[in-house]
Design brief:
With 84 residues, the chain is mostly beta strands. It has one domain: Ubiquitin-like (UB roll). Helices cover 8% and strands 31% of the residues. The chain has a 5-stranded mixed β-sheet with strand order 2-1-5-3-4, with no helix packed on it. Strand 3 and strand 4 form a beta hairpin. The longest helix has 7 residues. 17% of the residues are buried.
């Protein structure tokens, strides 16, 4: 049995532009939470974004950063939006 899982990370807006792609694949330890994805992204993606401002969706459903991920999950990282 593997001690890691592979998840697809969907990026939007400035993070997608910084990565040059809308999807990335990251490996995490089994039992990792959705919020752990943020720390596995390249450092030039969202360097000025505080991690507590990020919202997560796993497999199309909003979730909390502490939600446990499974192998093959898709994690969307959504930046806060401002404006009127």
């Amino acid at each position: 049995m593997s001690s890691t899982i592979s998840v697809t990370v969907r990026l939007f807006a400035s993070m997608r532009a910084a990565a040059g792609a809308d999807l990335l694949t990251v490996r995490l330890p089994v039992g990792a939470p959705a919020g752990a994805v943020w720390g596995r992204l390249p450092p030039d993606i969202g360097p000025d974004i505080p991690p507590d401002a990020i919202r997560y969706a796993v497999n199309g459903a909003w979730t909390v950063p502490g939600a446990t991920l499974a192998d093959g999950d898709e994690v969307a990282i959504i930046l806060p939006v401002s404006g009127g």
